[in-house]
Amino acid sequence: MNTNGNVYTVIYSTILVVLVAAILAFVAMSLQGKQNENVKLETISKLLGAASQADETMVIEEGADVLGLYAEKIEDAFFVNGLGEKVGEMNTGKENVKDIQVTSTSDLKKQNDIIKKIEDGQSDLVSTLALPVYVFDINGKDVTVIPCYGAGLWGPIWGYLAINEDGKTIDGAVFDHKGETPGLGAKIADAPFYNAFHGKTFNLDGDVVFTVAKASAITEPEHSVDAISGATITSQALGKSINLWAKYYKPYLAESAAAHQAVSAADSTMTVSGLAEPQDSVSTAAAVETNVNVEE
After folding, report:
1. Which residues of the chain have pLDDT under 70?
2. CA–CA distance, 174 with 105 (Å, rounded to integer)
3. SS3 17
4. Which three-class secondary structure state does DSSP give residue 124?
5. For a Cys-Cys bond, which of 63, 83, 107, 222 suits 103, CB 3.0-4.6 Å?
6. How are beta strands 224-226 and 211-213 bridged, if at all?
């Protein structure tokens, strides 16, 4: 074959391209497991990061065993639909940390796509949602972590919000992005921004659950956080995502809060009853002693 001819060049180039593609495909498949593991570790770190903010004494050191810490602190992990009904369970890794199951950003995107369809009028899809819920025990306090996901200025943005036992107070938050502008929109992942969410509340009784907006546009500061200066589009996009996802978590959060209030009320009643008995016993004993003294 003429090595200087066009046919040789085409055949040689084709073989080379196919060979390189095969090598790259093999390498990608070989690394897929490691990549998935890294994604899971990153998600677990963010879940713990949000939940740990509920207690300032809990500090996650750099290089900590996040799998072991997650298995220790997690109480339950499951999915709920838009009606607040539990529709699935996740392995919490209590028996083996390698079995821990968490949702990835790709999983969140799938749920976000369903939410957008519901918003466009396909209300029958509400029951098909599978929204992740993570319940942690942070020093004796139940902290529920829920995610949010949406489109930022240059790519997807997402985050995790730690919710108090009352079902509406934000105890912690962490956010991340794929390609927001460094020094501007990328600041959603910085502590000065996400720390501002601590103590804010969801408006579970209103149409707008939560907002992120310019200070001049905020009308309900208890349900809002100031937008990042110079990154209004990213900030508002994040606020929209939080509000939209919280809207479909509302049934579950309301039911969870009601259950917690019922348990707290029952505990208070038991405590009062428990205090009453000793007081009655003391009074009876005092009366008996008085009677004895009188008889003497």
Report:
1. 1-5, 28-35, 271-296
2. 14
3. helix
4. helix
5. 107
6. parallel
